[in-house]
Amino acid sequence: MKKILFPYHLLVRMRFKFRRWWAMYHAKRQITSYGVGLCVNAPCVFGGKVILGDNCNFNGMQILGDGSVTIGSNFHSGTECMIITQNHNYEGTCIPYDATYVLKHIVIGDNVWFGNRVIVTGSITIGEGAIIAAGSVVCKDVPPLAIVGGNPAKVIKYRNKEHYFDLKVKGMFH
Q: Taking the model in full, what pTM does it have?
């Protein structure tokens, strides 16, 4: 006798599709401006003024604070990444800090990739084509095509410039 079982894999697939749709719906309501091809695979928090380029992919990003973040095209984030756009004013009228905040502006160039659990803080610029290793804490500017890692993040090496620009000209974006 042959048993007919419920196709459980279809239920799982529907659950993931709904979760992705729900994450996209909420992300679009929080983002100031975004280009075509936005992909939000997991719940994200976008605070402050967030401007995104085309083909940005998020897997559980948190952008916290009332500052601003500008992210270029073809950005990819790992899971549990965090961008902090404000800090307490420790030079104010109270010790250790007062009730005001210092707002930051963060610029992330085109074709940047964050590994899992990257933290970005301060008024910084991450250059085009940079790769930020998993677990890094970025608190200074990152030059274009740099591969950085650590706490605080330091340049490990640079990507091959000719290879990078060949792929860019051919439009080989993931």
A: 0.87
Q: How high is the mean pLDDT in each 10-residue block of the chain (174 residues)? A: 64 80 87 92 92 95 94 96 92 82 95 97 96 97 97 96 92 82
User: Alpha carbon of 89 to those of 1, 51, 64, 97, 158: distances in Å?
Assistant: 73, 25, 16, 6, 35
Please list the active-site residues.
88
Q: What is the 3-state secondary structure (H, E, C) of the chain?
A: CCCCCCCHHHHHHHHHHHHHHHHHHHHHHHCCECCCCCEECCCCEECCEEEECCCCEEECCEEECCCEEEECCCCEEEECCEEECEEECCCCCCCCCCCCEEECEEEECCCCEECCCCEEECCCEECCCCEECCCCEECCCECCCEEEECCCCEEEEECCHHHHHHHHHHCCCC
Bridge-based pairing of strands 101-103 and 131-132 is unpaired
Structural domains of the chain, ranges and CATH numbers in brackets: 38-170 (2.160.10.10)
